[in-house]
Amino acid sequence: MAGRAPGSDPVQDDPRITPPEHHAVGVHAVTNAMRMARQQMGVVRSARTLLRVNQPDGFDCPGCAWPEESKVHKAEFCENGAKAVAEEGTRRRVTPAFFARYGVEELLGRSGYWLGQQGRLTEPMFLDEGASHYAPVSWERAYEIIGEEFAALDSPDEAVFYTSGRTPNEPAFALQLFARRLGTNNLPDCANLCHESTGSALVETLGIGKGSVSLDDIHHADLVIVAGQNPGTNHPRMMAALEKTKGNGGKVISVNPLPEAGLERFKNPQHVRGVVGDGTKLTDLFLQIRAGGDLALFRALNLLLLEEEDAAPGSVVDRAFIEEHTLGFEAWERDARTTRWDDVLAATGLPRTQIEQAAGMVREAESVIVCWALGLTQHKHSVPTLREIVNFLLLRGNVGRPGAGVCPVRGHSNVQGDRTMGIFERMPEAFHQALDAEFRFTSPRHHGYDSVNAIRAMRDDKVKVFVGMGGNFVAAAPDTPVTEEAVRRCALTVQISTKLNRSHLVTGRRALILPTLGRSDADRTEAGPQFVTVEDSMGLVHASRGRLKGEPALRSETAIVCAMARAALGSGDDVPWEEFALDYDTLRERIERVVPGFEDFNARVRRPGGFALPHAPRDSRSFPTHTGKANFTVNDMVVLAIPEGRLLLQTLRSHDQYNTTIYGLDDRYRGIRDGRRVVLVNPADIDGLGLREGAYVDLVSEGPDGRERRAAHFKVVSYPTARGCAAAYMPEATVLVPLEATSDISNTPVYKAVVIRFEPDSGPDAVAVI
Questions:
Q1: From the CB of residue 27, how many other CB atoms can be counted at a distance below 10 Å?
Q2: What's 17-58 look like in SS3?
């Protein structure tokens, strides 16, 4: 097959270990990105494609959700963005001949890296009940099969519609409309697995579950605290924003269990000093915290600020802001003053002098921003942690004014937009009312399944049809064997995808693969060229227009969703699905009448840079909470007790990966080469546990259900993690995360808080391929 990657699956369990790096990006990042682009797309196609990434007339990067700078460069992409574009724009193809050669069982033995390297899907494929191989199917027959399975449902709630954050606004809105016309709110998404804790905390305390800052705020903040985040790998363009913070005299505190090269020093390849010089030192103070200790840290900072206010009344706490805009301060203050330093030091693993140094930096800063990502959102106590961060900001009035506020940094490029469009199992009543008025029906009000509850429902035979819009659900979800067995109990699984992954191979009794256009692909209908829209981490909505010529059989996500809806709902459904698929402007006209902030949608999104959605706390210091004020909350101190002989494991990404997509087998910044089955352990813990650097071990976790979970054959790597903490890559270590271990309130899996022990190596033959 022309253009297909080699058939051999490289060995991934014998990595080479080199010293970690202490700076990010630089020339090496540029050359690595260009090498991968050239391999996947060729020289000419690479140049034409990469120069259109994140440009006003181009397409939105399919990677992270960090916003574009107002002054757009010709090369407005990062190394991992270039990798994402290269894999989407690849010339490699997965044709029906590939599926004729490889059966499902054989493909299940291949790694996720190998599957992804095979290239773009080209035609709809169908796996019939009892079949060993996928076979080509026409689009018409594929929709007939979907219609048959939906007609066989005993209840609309037997269908689940999962959405990846790469799904643009238009197909996301169409998908939620399809689900609710069917009669269900079963709309889990990848946010359930990552930032759900953010939404839960911010809606309760500030009234809106999104960040309150702009890029200009980042640039001009006096202090930016980056907690539980690795920008060098996951959001590289954020480092350019922090470089501007430093250039304007601001300071940066980094809070993380691992030192991250991207927060140590940034070599910006668009500046001379980033190419031939030392770059920019980003972090002024590094707090190497124990995993899960952030709640204790911010309680301690709040206590120190209150004590400084006692010493100099009126100089620290913003009493005027608190009295005018907040509720609950007195109860919170009483609780904050009970904070015990013994508990703080045990939870954080930090010396008191470092915490006091951080408090001094906060005290000197007129404006403070706190940024966070999954290191804070994937613990059992994540929601209380984030509520305490809001307390910390409210105490000094650091919400709703320039250079200050909350900055949750989202992952996929439209995960926030999908939620805005209604991809949520518990949308507020106002959204339902607007949807009902626009489409003249009564949408269901009972809560649907989130991602974890969808797995439980499939496991318990309560779901018959699973539709996945992008992503790799079975690899991203926790408790891998349980998730895979649950999915296999479905009657039909449908995957709308650009590339092959494990979710295409762990199927219901019947399965469909529906290949779709990507962000970089030209989208043309009989009505003319079409474009889609996305919302970034800071609430900016803009257009995305692909230009690459895709395979003839590919259809857009919008077209696929609309055709599925027609097949499932029948010809009597009065929603103009065909009109929506033909001309996305007609769909945007409906969105603007349902979703607040999208007035005059079609006109405003055609302006360069798009438009900003309203954000009441940021725009007017008003807080649409249940009390009408910003709410201080009381959050109990958490000190994680780890049994002797155990460590607390967090799962994370390597530098050659984005979520479950594996671009390569190196983690350059951490010094891991040619492999992924590693566990990073503090050298003192290696000695204390009687381990040996370079030895192979099995990782064993113990869940709340009493069942043990095992990840076999991991190489022990001596690494400067926080004492008592370890780290390993997802999805290889995701098997260790119990389905029942989730965050309070948000129900997010605790990917960053898995208690593990080490056992003798079972050998490479025991490795479960993910």
A1: 12
A2: ECCCCCCEEHHHHHHHHHHHHHHHHCHHHHHHHHCCECCCCC
Domain ranges within the chain, ordered by starting residue? 22-88, 93-192+414-610, 196-408, 647-766
- Residue type at 768? A
Mean pLDDT by 10 residues, the chain (770 residues): 54 88 78 77 74 77 78 67 81 96 97 95 98 98 98 98 94 98 97 96 98 96 97 88 96 97 86 69 97 98 98 96 98 98 98 98 98 97 98 98 96 89 97 98 98 98 97 96 98 97 98 95 96 94 91 96 98 97 98 98 95 96 97 96 95 92 92 96 98 97 89 97 97 97 97 96 83
Measure the CA–CA gap between 314 and 330, rounded to whole angstroms. Answer: 16
Q: How far is CA 568 from CA 34, 180, 192, 280, 463, in A?
A: 44, 12, 26, 56, 16
pTM of the model: 0.96
Q: Which DSSP string corresponds to 297-362?
A: HHHHHHHHHHHHHHHSTTSSS-HHHHHHHEE-HHHHHHHHTT--HHHHHHHH---HHHHHHHHHHH
**Pairwise CA distance, residues 734 & 728, whole Å:** 9
- Distance in angstroms (rounded) separating the CA atoms of residues 762 and 397: 55
Q: Is the peptide bond before 168 cis (omega within 30 degrees of 0)?
A: no
d(CA 350, CA 348) in angstroms, rounded, equals: 5
Domain 647-766 has CATH 2.40.40.20: yes
Structure tokens at 297: 């840290």
The CATH label, of 3.40.50.2000, 3.40.1390.30, 3.40.228.10, 3.30.200.120, for the domain at 196-408 is 3.40.228.10
DSSP state of 452: H
CATH topology of domain 93-192+414-610: Rossmann fold (3.40.50)
Structure-block tokens of residue 35 = 């090498």
Q: How far is CA 100 from CA 55, 97, 134, 493, 495, in A?
A: 40, 5, 7, 20, 19
Q: What angle do CA 746, 749, 754 make, to 5 degrees?
A: 130
Closest CA to 383 of 539, 190, 203, 648: 203
Pick from 635, 650, 755: nearest CA to 291? 650
